[in-house]
Structure formats: C-alpha cells, structure tokens
Here is the input.
Amino acid sequence: MTKTIAGIHHVTAIASDPQQNLDFYAGVLGLRLVKITINFDDPGSYHFYYGDALGQPGSVLTFFPWPGAQRGRIGTSQVSVTSFSVPQSSFSYWQDRLKEHGVQTDASTRFGEPVLSFTDGDGLWLELIGAATPDERLAWSGGPVPGEHAIRGFHSATLSEEGYERTAKLLTETMGLHLLQEEGNRFRYAAGDGGPGATVDVVCQPGAPHGLMGAGTVHHIAWRAADDAAQLAWRAELVRRGLNVSPVMDRQYFHSIYYREPGGILFEIATDAPGFTWDESPETLGTHLKLPPWLESYRSRIEGALPPLRLPHAINTSSSA
Ligand code: ZN
Here is the structure.
C-alpha cells in the first residue's frame, strides 16, 4: 500500500445555470461530459462531471449548477484559479477559439510557461497553460476540439491564502508534496513526480478580500489516493496531526474524506477507483442521468424537479436510465 498523493483528483465549483455551464465546458472548452448525476447531499440539483475521455483522476472538473445561485467572490481561503494543460503548440488555436466564442483572454508567462487566463459565464477564473514538459495524457477527441489541441487534464490549481506557512507545512510535511519553484508571493508545490496535474501553487495575498462561496467560485479541491486502504491511512494521519476529518463518504465514482487546510480551503482525498465507467460504458458516459442506488426509487420525482438539459450530441436525459 502506498500512501503517496499522486496529484489533483478533481476540482468542484459552483455555477448558476446548468445549460450555460454545459455549453461552455463541453461546447467551448471541449471537455467530455462524463457524468450527469445529482448532488447526493441535495437531490434537487445536478452534479456535472467534465474530464478527459474516461474522466480519469487529474482531469475532472465538477459543478453544482444551482439555478439562480448568487455570484460568490473569489478571494483568500479559496482555490482561486483552476488551470488546464494544453500543448504549447496549441496556444494560438485556443486564443482564436476563445475569441470566436466571445471569451476575453489575457496572455502571460509564469515559470517559463505560457498562460491564457479567462473566466466562465459565472466569473470562475480559469487558465490554459502550455506545459513545458510534454503532457502525454490522452485527451478527449470526440468533442468539438480536435484531439491534437484538446485539454489534457489539469495543469495545476492556485490556492489563495492570507498567510501561507501553515498551508505549506500541511502540503509538505503531512501530504508529501515538495516545493518546486517560487516567484514573488507564489510558491509552487509538486506531488509525486510533479508535472501537469500534480502541481499546486500557493499564493500569499494578505491584502486580498476573503473569498465568498457562490456561483463562479471553487467549492473544494480533491487529491488522489490510490485506494481505500491508502485513504484510511491518510485519514488516520490527518487526525493524528490534529485535523478534523470527515468519515469516508461513498460518492459512487470514488470514496471521499474531507478536511479544511489551515487557510480555510476545503480539501478532499478521493480514491482513484471505481471511476466513472462502473455504471456506464465508456461509449455512453454522460448521456443519461445517473442516480445512486439509494435514490433510484425516487427517479421520476427527481427527474421531474430538475431543469431540462440540451446535452452535447443532443441526447436526451430522460430517454432511459
Ligand atoms: Zn469532491
């Protein structure tokens, strides 16, 4: 059993309009919608998962799209930016594509890599980064973005903090990440072997406003545990270090524990298995509303309460389970 954190598992954010969210992430960014389900803690709302062809750990951005949700404020004690990895050679493709779709972008360079910054319709801060090390992960080529240009998965995420020392200590001394680079108030940490999907930046911004949860903000970031045994070992270790950690929760596609890092950001450790293909074939991922077994008997009531969706490829959610 290895207890190493292999990198980012998923990032979960809040949106205000399910259809606008689908159109942007599956349509403009060309991610694969790998699962449509509901928020298990709030069955009246959707939970969307976007990712690579199979929704592999390290590629999955998930949303709770709450219709009419108030916009939040991005600030400290939050994951302020979610960054995806694209080939450096695709940079101008993405600049053109986003412009065509009316998305304003800002190009810069960070740690020697080109960065394209923009927001989604709710104001969530996103980046496409041309990774210096070639990203060999297989992209989803069945969407509107050709495979050669498609998003490979996460590059990294930015944690905004009022102060960074105790967060840095948790990342390095407890969670096993190591400091890779620093530039001004930005400290880059790597998990495992590092590289795209295994990198996180901590930005120390004592003067910045505190983040407020709402549409256009990240709810939590999840880290990868290889299996249930590794997750339990992490739970014991985090508790031993004085953190409050949730019990293991069954999220159907992975098992989760949650805790708050010292700066206030909600962290999760999620297992790689069972993954998104346990209840749908790889070919049909994201084409039907999936419910956990304990809610299946309420399907018609749940479906009736959810807003209708126009899915990528125009497949209807209500056609069958
Ligand atoms: Zn999560």
